[in-house]
Specification:
The complex is a heterodimer of chains A (254) and B (346). With 254 residues, chain A is mainly α. Chain A contains twelve helices and no strands. Helices cover 78% and strands 0% of the residues of chain A. Classes of the chains: A mainly alpha (254), B alpha/beta (346). At the A-B interface, helix 1, helix 6 and helix 12 of A face strand 6, helix 4 and helix 13 of B.
Chain lengths: 254, 346
């Protein structure tokens, strides 16, 4: 167990150091989401009706959730490269804890996710986002974001080990996740969508997480959203972590 | 011979991890299939502590698969495989402390510096950070990489990457080392430099299993060679024994005039055990001794009044080995390709 913790930290450190060597990746976590936030607030914002809320208050939790769902991209790309370059073989020939490669990889995402949440939230506050929440609710919201992001990192870990190239990981991830985040309550109220889309947007786990964030941060209707979001995160984790681990074993052993 | 012969058996045992008197690598009846492809079909070989065993064969012969089984990356379907006295399946975790692996591709993190790469590997072997750092510096010095220690590995040349990869395999001073085609893709100078590094390692008592497609590489580095083809060992012995079977070096003379072929064959016949063969205007003969062979050939051909355009010695190649052993030229199967696909495709 001590070995697992130590080795996970070593792999995490490796993945974080790598960020400092690839500044373009850091842009993806920081400048890109800020650009999206500003575009939505100032370009579409005036045309989108969000009863009861100012659009920037409505949007910020949504765009943060979308962004955090994509945070695991680095995991998909990184693992795919590691398999290709034979690094996974080296790791497997070392007397290290087996799950540490995946655990360290996904844990590194928690740090980068925290960074991008901080940047988005900071920008949001500058352009006038205001919390309607207690301190506990704000912290709870941050916790939920990181949990959901962590769960999604395992989806990307699985994806990265499944596809044949980093480019493929990129496009498959984009095609799978992008519509999911858009057909949700993240950017517009689902009531404004046509029938089937509206239904999907309402049951979409993204919407549930986004709604939970609104409940926590801007006083949206809570309902079962917060617990629903936690359960969804755990369900994703419980399904995709074993899938990724199994894929890792196979990727490394055949 | 490496100097292990001067080391008392008990100390040699401690160095290799294998009980004294037992081979450092013992493979018996190893079988491994991927789907319908039998990559290894009952392979057996051994390496004594402190020696170099060369696995020689064309692409896809099963060399990489064998290394992957020995390095605990792949479980064998059948057969027994022991390294440093430990079973690769039962004692895999223990065994990983005793082995170092450098594969066909430099398995380094290009975003980390040379030193960071080695420190990471050292810590994953369980070393404290300070010790891993000291060991990393030591290795970078040994491999002539100290100047580049703090540069990201993506700025390294191909030869430097290979050296860093090899250094990473040596971080824990493993008694048994696996090198899978260590010089493929290197220019001749880097290749020679790497050979010298490997020789120095072996001189310190490391047991080495090396795969290669090049006869000259196996000849230079290996104490014993196992020739692998289609997942089977088709010949095994010292480099000299194998070369004897292949017929040693060949002398080739390109004649100015085709009409002289018969005279040239007569003139060169005393130099080889087998009669010379003529192929168009080229006469070939396997020579018993390399030294002086060219001079002798020039003299004999001159005495016979045969004009020569070109005269040279040709070292036997992997193709010659296969031709001699199997009667056909070495074919590349797609085993490596299969490996690759199995690893990445769904």
């Amino acid at each position: 167990m001590r070995r697992l913790v130590t080795d996970t930290m070593i792999v995490t450190e490796r993945n974080l150091v790598r960020l400092t060597r690839a500044p373009d990746l850091v842009l993806a976590f920081t400048v890109q989401p800020v650009m999206f936030l500003l575009l939505f607030v100032y370009v579409f914002g005036g045309a989108i009706v969000t009863p009861g809320y100012e659009y920037k208050d409505f949007l910020l939790p949504g765009i943060i959730v979308q962004n955090i769902a994509f945070g695991g991209f680095v995991t998909a790309l990184g693992l795919n490269e590691d398999v290709k370059k034979g690094l996974i073989d080296r790791f497997r020939s070392l007397p290290m804890a087996r799950p540490a490669v995946l655990a360290g990889r996904t844990l590194a995402d928690v740090f980068t996710n925290a960074l991008s949440v901080a940047v988005l939230l900071g920008t949001g506050l500058i352009i006038g986002f205001s919390f309607q929440a207690s301190f506990i609710e704000i912290i709870g919201g941050l916790g939920l974001l990181l949990l959901f992001g962590y769960a999604f990192s395992w989806v990307f870990a699985w994806l990265g080990l499944l596809v044949s190239s980093p480019e493929a990981a990129n496009s498959v991830g984009f095609i799978a996740v992008f519509p999911l985040t858009f057909v949700s309550s993240a950017f517009v109220p689902p009531e404004s969508m046509p029938g089937a889309l509206k239904w999907f947007a309402e049951v979409n786990p993204f919407s549930i997480v986004v709604n939970a964030m609104r409940a926590l941060w801007i006083g949206g209707p809570a309902g079962n959203n917060v617990w629903g979001a936690v359960v969804w995160s755990l369900v994703i984790l419980v399904i995709f972590a074993p899938l990724a681990v199994r894929r890792y074993r196979r990727a490394a052993s055949s | 011979m490496p100097p292990t012969t001067q080391v008392p058996p008990a100390a040699a045992g401690a160095r290799t991890g294998a009980p004294p008197g037992e081979p450092a690598i013992a493979v018996r009846g190893l079988v491994k299939s991927f789907g319908d492809v039998r990559a290894l079909d009952g392979v057996s070989f051994e390496a004594a502590p402190g020696t170099v065993l060369g696995l020689l064969g064309p692409n896809g012969a099963g060399k990489t698969t064998a290394v992957r089984v020995l390095a605990t990356l792949l479980a064998p379907d059948a057969g027994s495989v022991c390294v440093a006295g430990l079973d690769v399946v039962e004692d895999a975790t223990k065994l990983r402390h005793q082995i170092g692996l450098a594969g066909q591709y430099a398995a380094i993190d290009e975003n980390l510096t040379g030193l960071e790469n080695l420190v990471m590997v050292g810590r994953l072997y369980g070393m404290p950070r300070a010790q891993a750092k000291a060991r990393g510096r030591e290795l970078l010095g040994d491999f002539d990489l100290l100047d580049a220690a703090d540069r990201p590995a993506k700025t390294y040349s191909g030869g430097m990457r290979r050296r860093l990869d090899l250094a990473a395999a040596l971080v824990a001073k493993p008694p048994v080392l696996f090198l899978d085609e260590p010089t493929s893709g290197l220019d001749p100078r880097s290749r020679l430099a790497l050979w010298e590094t490997i020789e120095a390692l072996v001189a310190e008592g490391t047991t080495l299993l090396l795969t290669t497609q090049y006869l000259d590489e196996a000849d230079r580095l290996a104490d014993r060679i196992a020739v692998i083809d289609h997942g089977k060992v088709i010949a095994e012995g010292t480099p000299d024994e194998l070369k004897d079977r292949v017929g040693g070096e060949r002398l080739e003379a390109r004649l100015t005039d085709d009409a002289d072929v018969a005279a040239a064959v007569r003139a060169l016949a005393p130099m080889g055990d087998e009669p010379p063969v003529a192929d168009g205007s080229v006469v070939k003969v396997g020579v018993r001794r390399r030294s002086g062979a060219l001079v002798e050939a020039v003299r004999r051909l001159d005495e016979a009044g045969v004009g020569v355009d070109d005269l040279g010695m040709r070292r036997p190649t992997l193709d010659d080995v296969f031709l001699a052993l199997t009667g056909r030229v070495a074919e590349s199967a797609d085993e490596d390709q299969i490996d690759e696909n199995e690893r990445t495709a769904p």
